[in-house]
Design brief:
mainly alpha; three-stranded antiparallel sheet; single chain; 464 residues; 21 helices; binds amidocarboxymethyldethia coenzyme *A
């Protein structure tokens, strides 16, 4: 064992009380070149999957019921996603690490305490907690790839300012595919063993460009100004905040946390699944990610952060500033009785309070404990779960990530609620594109499940 590996192993052993078992024996490379670290890991993982399929290719992992087929495929075990796993009770783990563990272990921005999303991306791609030098290298790489082509800037500046920011976002991402190295490589006939490399290059380019693209959209819907240029000495989140016109250090910290925790939520959620599905047709990463963003723009998924703020604003308008619990209950029951959902509550998989909600709440308790909107959100948290339980429909009465994010953004002056899902999308790129690289490394084929019509299904199950 080399000296470096021995030291790394000793550090891992010392930290084993905070590391999940699967990671305790891993050696991490000290190279700061993400692509070469990944290139080292891929053959090992490919071999592991080949072995698994050889031994267990015919082993059953679950059954599909008729209810699952009509019920949005809930609970069907049908996807492999390496980057994160969602436990219904505990919440998300990124490559085995919980959010508090990521907050503790991932390198921070200068003078800050929140993790840098660059580090989370390294973790999602490689499974390793990166060093500060490795994270700095990712920052530099993204800063060097951030420039947008002129045609996309022109496209963005020609959108009407009342076109929903998510439509602007998804259209501009689609148009960026003129840059795709994967599409060009495929056209030129590259070997399929190289697909992951071209996907990696496109993913790095796309992630690097997203803050600039998203900041132009923000300026488009606000003051129509031009974002300042990227500061190459600063991190991804700092630059995104700055290009939108925010220079408050606390807001930058919030951005680092926000962009880290919204990145990934295993493979079955709409944005991840859509990206993966479209990617399986070998559509390039720009087209695949744009598909994911069109899914994120739905009110039952990422648009819920906008919906929460709209709902809270209506609540304040109709009940005024200080609200009694009883009046709040009435308002919530009215929402339910009028056939609407309480936005920010419930989840398709989670059955407890979302840890992404909890860490945003902790941020608020630290930085804005007396903010009236935060107090209202806390009061809503006290009241909604019991009502949803009493109504007896929602399987999960607890808040999800979107119940909290808008309040924090409002506090720092980012009040344009129809923009919030774009920020979610910038973060989501980290998870779904890291997964797409692995999809290509594993050579996953075109996704094509079997569907039935109702007469065919009735026949299949012997229904008369
Ligand atoms: N308010 C009111 N009713 C709710 C509810 C809520 N927050 N959550 C679920 N329900 C209802 C459903 O609409 C459904 O009603 P139906 O039987 O009349 O169709 C019933 O409870 C059962 O639904 P479920 O199995 O508990 O949830 P699901 O897996 O079908 O849907 C979700 C999950 C998130 C779409 C749903 O909880 C919801 O609509 N929540 C509000 C929107 C929201 O916050 N979305 C963001 C989710 C996180 C994210 O992706 N960003």
């Amino acid at each position: 064992m080399s000296v470096i590996r021995k030291v790394a192993f000793q550090i891992l052993l010392q930290n084993k009380n905070i590391l999940p078992a699967a990671f305790c024996t891993r050696n991490s490379s000290t190279s700061t070149d993400l692509k070469s670290v990944l290139a080292e890991k891929i053959p090992e993982k490919q071999k592991e999957v080949v072995e698994l399929r050889k031994q267990h290719g015919n082993t059953k992992v679950g059954d599909v019921t008729v209810d699952m087929m009509y019920g949005g495929m809930r609970g069907i075990k049908g996807l492999v996603t390496e980057t994160s796993v969602l436990d219904p009770e505990e919440g998300i783990r990124f490559r085995g690490y919980s959010i508090p563990e990521c907050q503790k272990l991932l390198p921070k921005g200068k003078g800050g305490t929140e993790p840098l999303p660059e580090g989370l991306f390294w973790l999602l791609l490689t499974g390793d907690i990166p060093s500060q030098a490795q994270v700095d290298a990712v920052t530099q790489e993204w800063n060097s790839r951030a420039a947008l082509p002129n045609h996309v800037i022109t496209l963005l500046s020609n959108f009407p300012s009342n076109l929903h920011p998510m439509s602007q976002f998804s259209s501009a991402i689609t148009a960026l595919n003129l840059e795709s190295k994967f599409a060009k490589g495929y056209h030129d006939g590259i070997n399929k063993n190289l697909f992951w490399e071209y996907t990696y290059e496109d993913s790095m380019d796309l992630i690097a460009k997203l803050p600039t693209l998203a900041a132009i959209i923000y300026r488009n819907i606000t003051d129509g100004g031009t974002p300042c240029p990227i500061d190459t000495a600063k991190d991804w989140s700092w630059n995104y905040a700055s290009m939108m016109g925010f220079d408050n250090a606390e807001f930058v910290e919030l951005m680092r946390l926000y962009l880290t925790i919204h990145s990934d939520h295993e493979g079955g959620n709409v944005s991840a699944h859509a990206t993966h599905l479209v990617g399986s047709a070998l559509s390039d990463p720009y087209l695949s990610f744009a598909a994911g963003m069109n899914g994120l723009a739905g009110p039952l998924h990422g648009l819920a952060n906008q919906e929460v703020l709209t709902w809270l604003t209506k609540l304040q308008k109709s009940l005024g500033g200080e609200v009694s619990d009883d009046k709040l209950r009435d308002f919530i029951w009215n929402t339910l009785k009028s056939g609407q959902v309480v936005p920010g509550y419930g989840h398709a998989v989670l059955r407890k309070t979302d840890p992404r909600y909890t860490c945003q709440r902790e941020f608020a308790l630290k930085h804005l404990p007396n903010d009236p909107l935060f107090k209202l959100v806390s009061q809503v948290y006290k009241v909604v779960p019991d009502i949803l339980i009493e109504q007896g429909k929602a399987k999960n009465p607890w808040p999800n990530v979107d119940a909290h994010s808008g309040v924090l953004l409002q506090y720092y002056g980012l009040t344009e609620m129809n923009y919030y899902t774009v920020m979610f999308g910038v973060s989501r790129a980290l998870g779904v594109l890291a997964s797409l690289v692995w999809d290509r490394a594993f050579g996953l084929p075109l996704e094509r499940p079997k569907s039935f019509d109702t007469p065919g299904l009735k026949k299949l199950v012997g229904s008369k």
